[in-house]
Each structure stands twice: as structure tokens, then as C-alpha cells.
Amino acid sequence: MLYDAKRFKCFERKRFRFNGCDFLTEYLYRNNKRFTDRKGVRLNDIPFVQEELKEHPRPPLPLSLIWTPEEAAIVIESFWRGFLVRRREDVQELRKWQKKCREERQDVRKKVSSFWAKTALAGDDADE
Fold first, then answer.
1. Which of these, 11, 26, 56, 103, is most buried using a 10 Å CB contact count?
2. How far is residue 8's CA from residue 2's CA, in Å, rounded to a whole number?
3. How far apart are CA 29 and CA 36, in angstroms?
């Protein structure tokens, strides 16, 4: 258990994703001498754990605990690079043009749908 705690850097940080109770539950379930077919069973595959999680689901872990520092750095860097690109004048101009085109397309869709609605109403009046 101490090896896994060290691997998850529990002694270096305040918050971490390692849960000692989960580790002990999984370890004791796997290494029970009465049952030899439990090798390689993960925590979420244990029947009584599945029942407990159905009754009392856990909240999801925050991304700061799931991601490694390298993965977090990649996400932060990609957001920063995207910000730098979106900040450029030529890109802002392109985005304004795209927004205008989208609004015009939306207007056309509204006109077409209202046309077909009127046509359907006129067809219903002609049938009567």
C-alpha cells in the first residue's frame, strides 16, 4: 500500500486520487486464500462494491486529480495557444464574418419554415 501511495505522490501533495480503503478492499478480495479465481479483479468488478456504488454513487473526481502534470500542461498550453490565435485581428475578422453568415443562414431557415407552414395552412383550407 505504501508503494502505491508513493506512486500516486500522496506524500508530496495535499490532494490525490489514491484511496487507501479502495486499495485495501481490492487487495484483500484478490488475495483471499479461500478463493483462487479472484486474481486480476478490479475494484469496480467486485460484486459487493458494485451493489454499494449502485446505492451510493460516488461523485466524479475532479480533473486536477485525474490528469498527470504532463496532461494538465498540454491542456493549459493548448488553451493558451488557442487564445493567442483568437486574439489576432485577422482571426477576429474571420470569426465576425462567420457569425454574420450563420445568422443569415438562420434567417433563411426561418423564412423557409414559415413558407412551408403557410403552404400547409393554405392546403388545409383548400381541402375543406
1. 26
2. 10
3. 10
Distances (CA, A) of 71 to 31, 77, 78: 33, 10, 11
Cα 19 to the center of its chain, rounded Å: 22
| 3-class secondary structure, 78 | helix
CA dist 59 and 23 (Å) reads: 18
Phi, psi of 68 (to 5 degrees): -80, 165
Contact of 7 with 13, CB cutoff 8 Å? no
Q: pLDDT tens across 71-88, in order?
A: 999 999 999 999 999 999
pTM here? 0.49
